């Protein structure tokens, strides 16, 4: 093999190593970002569940007040 061919091969190998290194760094960054996003998703799910529980409680309170109001209206009808 001639010296020029060897130099070209060496340059290509170095370029491949540099590209691999950059890709590994990008993979690490993406893994960190993915971890952060997973935490955000879990927090959002927890918030969603809390809102669903609160909504159920408010609906129950609404139903209780509606029942009490109906009972009062019924008593008023009996008086009239």
TrEMBL record:
Pfam families (alphabetical): ZapB
Primary subcellular site in the record, as a coarse category: cytoplasm
Subcellular location: Cytoplasm
Keywords, alphabetical: Cell cycle, Cell division, Coiled coil, Cytoplasm, Septation
Gene Ontology BP, a term: FtsZ-dependent cytokinesis
Family matches, as InterPro entries: Cell_div_ZapB
Presence of the UniProt keyword Cytoplasm in the record: yes
GO cellular component, one term: cytoplasm
Recorded coiled-coil stretches: 6-75
Transmembrane segments: none
Assembly mode: Homodimer. The ends of the coiled-coil dimer bind to each other, forming polymers. Interacts with FtsZ.
Record function comment: Non-essential, abundant cell division factor that is required for proper Z-ring formation. It is recruited early to the divisome by direct interaction with FtsZ, stimulating Z-ring assembly and thereby promoting cell division earlier in the cell cycle. Its recruitment to the Z-ring requires functional FtsA or ZipA.
Family: Belongs to the ZapB family.
Official protein name in the record: Cell division protein ZapB
Species annotation: Tenebrionibacter intestinalis
The encoding gene: zapB
